[in-house]
Every structure is written in C-alpha cells, then in structure tokens.
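Subject: Interface between my chains keeps coming out wrong

I've been trying for a while to get a sensible model of this assembly. When I model each chain on its own everything looks fine, but I need the whole thing in one frame so I can look at the contacts. Pasting all components below, labels as-is. Any help appreciated, I'm running out of ideas.
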Amino acid sequence: MDELELLKKDWKKDDKVYPKLSYNEIYNMILSKSSSIVKWIFIISILEFVFWVFISFGLKASGFNLELDGMERNFGFIAISIFSYAVLAYFFYKFYTNYKTINSTDNAKTLMENILKTRRTVKQYVFFNLVVLIIGVTYMMPYAIKSDEDSRALLEIAQANGELFKYYASIALVTLIGLVIAISVLLLFYWLIYGILLKRLNRNYFELKKLED
Amino acid sequence: MNKALEHSFVELLEKHQNIVHKVCRLYTNNQDAHNDLFQEITIQLWKAYPKFRGDAKFSTWMYRVGLNTAITLYRKSKRSIKTEEFENVQFKIKSEPYDDTEEQQLKLLYKAVHQLNDIEKALVFLYLEDKNYSEISETLGITEVNARVKMNRVKKKLRTILNP
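Reply #2:
Try treating it as a single job with all components included. I did that and got this:
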C-alpha cells in the first residue's frame, strides 16, 4: 500500500482521540493576545519609523544650531524638512496600505508576498534615510568645522603649518569610520531581528516560488 | 465585537476543533507547542471571522487560516524544540486489535512526515484531509500541475526517509 494511504487510514481513525477543548477554554483563547510575526513586524516597523524621525529631527536641530548664513540655512533646511516629511508620509501611507492587505484567509503565497511587501516598504524608508544621512553628514561637515570654535582653531593651526590636506583627510576618515560603525550597527540589528523573525517565512516563500520557476 | 459573534464563533470552533488539532499535530512535536499553535490559530481565526461570509464552508475556511498560521504567521515557540524521541504518542489510543507491523510502520511514517519542510507538510495535510489538487493549489497559491509535481516529490522523499 502507498505510504500516504496507510497514513490517511490512521489519520481518519484518529478523529476521536484529539483533546476536546471546552467552550470556555476556546473562549479564553480568543481573549488572549496574538504573538504572530505580523504583530512583531508591525511593532518593529513603527519603531523604525519613530527612530528615523528622531534621527532626522536630531540632524535638523543640530543643523539649525550651526552658525550658518541666514538665508541659506532657512531655505535649505525648510526645503529638506518639507521633503523629508513628504517622504515619511509617502512611506508610512505605503506601509499602512500594504499592512492592511495582509490577510490570513489569502492563499499561502499571497500572504507571504504581502508580508514581504510590507517589510520592503520599511526597508526602502530606512535605505532612503541612510542615503540622506550620508549626504547630510557630508554636506554639513564643512559648516560644522567652521562653526565649531575648537575645529576652527585646529583648522587655522593646520593652515599655518601647511597641513590642510592632512587636516581634511583626517576629518573625512573620522566621519567615514563613524558612518561605517553606525551602518554596521544597523545592519547587525537587521540581520539579527529579521534573520530570526523572517527566516522561516523566507524559507517557505522560496520553497513555493521555486515550484513556480 | 459583539457577544453573539463571539458565541457563534466559539460554538463553530468547538465543533470543528479537530481540524486545528490536526494542523498542530503535523507542525509541532510536543504538547506545549501544540497548545501554543492551537491558541495562535484560534486567535487568527477569530480575527478573520468577521469577514467570514459563509459562502465557503467553515471547515474549508479553517484549513486555510490554520495552515497560514502554521506556515507563515506563527512564531515558533521555544518549546517546540526538536526531539528525536518524539513518537507522536500523545494521541495514540487504539481501539482496534494491535497490529505490531502496522503500528511500527505508522510510527515511522509520522516520524518521517515530521522531517518534511513546512510546505511539504501542508501538502501532506491537505492530501490526508482528502482535498483535491484544485483545492491544494488554491490554498497554497501554486498551480494545480505544480501541486501534483510537488506531491509526487513528497511521496518520493517520504520513501527515501523510510528506506534510506
């Protein structure tokens, strides 16, 4: 006999031997809280949005503190602010609409795709912020040097000693190391959180996708 | 959600709870993990229930939500660690004459099914529940041809596990 046929025979026979949960036991279950990956993805995604909003606020606040030329400061930072809020609103709207399409009654492949799509939106937002962070830091660095008294003093000393290139190179190196560390920490966070959370989903999605290829 | 909805849902689930137990049986390997998954499936069913229109059978609708929870939504509990000793004994209450060979074969079969991956288990589950390939393909989101191909591969894989 086919192995699965033998199993099917037993599978059906077992109908009466499962534990029988009472009405009250089931009722208590519907009052308890879900621990599904969708809930965790939602919480982590919101935290990511909040995190990057704080980071961009921080950057903007430090930008405003710089003693920059008035017109340039106002126009540049107001434009950046409007742009970043528009981007945030766009990504958040996209995230929310994607999140709303997650439906446990869809077929398995569609459900997985919708979850991954929701994640992708947050990833794009984080990627966008990383690019803005890199550009922002690079752009603000000369102003920061000019506005900081200690840096200005060091710059003058370097200028007097003819070590201007060395001075700028060391600033660039320190900035680069700082960015690499910050991005590495983020990537590690991603690798840990999503590696654990989405490992199974990715594996199963790949398994279904493989069939269709 | 109103009380009448809660009542109708709990009553229906109480009646059809074996479907959930069966999903848990394939996807977990100890009683604690079984209970955890049962609870998560119940929550997901309840969350989806207001959209259940009754145009599908409640049981058919349960298969889909149950499997989706087991394959995708459920975060495996720490308690569902692999145990090689697992022999699926918790549900075995035989009422028929004891057949050592068949009993032994079934033990090995259940053990082999537990070694399959999540998607393969879903195929086996739907097959054991007498679902046709059209229903299997609709539940998993693959074509009917691919469901057949995959099912044949699963059968082969089981044979290989049983006769290495």
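Reply #3:
Confirming on my end. The mean pLDDT of chain B is 84.
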